[in-house]
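QA checklist item 7 of 12: single-chain prediction sanity check.
[x] sequence parsed
[x] length recorded as 311
[x] structure emitted
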Amino acid sequence: MTPPNPPPPPAPTPPDPRNDAIFVHVGGELLPRAQAKVSVFDSVVQGGDACWEGLRVYDGKVFRLGAHLDRLFASAHALAFERLPARDEVRDALFACLRANCMRDGVHVRLTLTRGEKVTSGMSPRWNRGPCTLIVLPEWKPPVFGGRGLTLVTSSWRRNPPQCLDSRIHHNNLLNNILAKIEADAAGADDAIMLDLAGCVAETNACNLFHVARGELHTPALGSCLPGITRATVLELARSAGLPTHERSITLVELMTADEVFATGTMGELAHVVRIDGRAVGAGEAGPLTRRLAALFAELVRRDGEPIAEA
């Protein structure tokens, strides 16, 4: 007999009902969520041809906005984008969108810059005749993991090496990360650890990784992992606190046998890891160094950042 089809999963709902009524900036216009769309000829639709940044708003300030804009424009330059908006135009669009939504805290922003609309479908940028498309998508959204411990599994999919697609380009072509996330979902885990082609740890499908061994902080060297803004901030905080830090090649066994492991990112801030491939990490809770760094980070984001400019 053919087994019956399982019932469909429940439809997902926004993490905050206020997100149903947000305004989104698309191509120079502020539009209600239901009307915020890009053309089917936009490069992001045609080939994932775009770069993006995740921003977080704390107490009326955008944390590390300058560093995020630096990375956005560096990615656009590496991708040979033309007719870019000015840096101040991006900043003004961001602030206008936050003001329109009365957003000053507890907000995550997806800032996207596409190569723009094409005159016909095709891969070549020579079909792009208009300006780049800027999208500012703010949402009421708490840190994604909510302070709970993460369970990770190792993905069979490898992280792109620089000779294939350099992770220093913060691009929208995220299919290998999505394939890894599908594996994590299937395993009932929060995220998946992605290795590089040499079998060393790169990052998770969404976050940078750190571990603590004998009181010292370790993180994978840049190469197959994203040079994350939160990653860089944690390294700064650790060094300022006098903690020994190491950026180097790290094996999966080192991660499994570490005293503490945590992930970092704009969406998740600092999130401790409690299990990797079925093995408990340390004491199975946030360790003392992880808690110390998380406290330093929480203090920093409340006092540092670029204030949302008034109209």
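[x] summary fact logged: The chain has a mean pLDDT of 95.
[ ] second reviewer sign-off
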